[in-house]
Amino acid sequence: MPGQSQSSNSDSQVVSGESSILSGNNLLCQTMQESDPLTGLNDMCDIDGINNPIPPNQDTAVLEITSILRANCIPYIIPCPQPDGQISVGYEFNGDDEWRSFQPETDSPGGTDHIFIRMDVGANFYIFASGFYYWPWFYPERPNMVGDCDVGERAACVGKMGEQGAHVTVNFHYSRFD
How high is the pLDDT of residue 5? Predict the structure, then answer.
């Protein structure tokens, strides 16, 4: 099952999921609506949101977050943690402070999930991550993050959106209960 997300009615629509084509804001959905090969995905777009696109003079870029599950699980024998963990993101978009929470779900060791968020160029962003206990198999270690942000001591990073966007990888590490 692809990742799960929670989002508001803002134009900074967020889509997450393994091998997801949808990303950014509703302008991509408009392109999808006009493209024959992608018409099957139109149901996933907020077509009403196309009427309220990003203001034309506003510079925005995309934050891409990749989550990776680091657990010694064997699907169908030793189940993988589900979801992989939780990622919370704070940022500014259109002058408003936004917060989103995601629970990526990859179902395989080394599996990846991707989250794309459009935000204002120059805006600060904050990413927090935490794992979950999966009794009787796994307990979480502190997730680590690498990429276009300064990493703090508590599984958190702070960055500033550049004109070319930003990318952060979150590694969810788990150890087995003995």
Answer: 45
Three-state SS letters, 105-120: CCCCCCCEEEEEEEEE
Is the pLDDT reported for residue 131 higher than 70?
Answer: yes
Q: Report residue 42: phi and psi, to 5°.
A: -60, -30
Higher pLDDT, 96 or 14: 96
- How would you class 157 by CB atoms within 10 Å of its CB: exposed for 0-12, middle for 13-18, buried for 19 or more? buried
Domain residue ranges in the chain: 10-176
pLDDT at 21 exceeding the cut of 50:
no
Q: How far apart are CA 30 and CA 143, in angstroms?
A: 36
Vertex 117 angle, CA 46 and 134, to 5°: 100
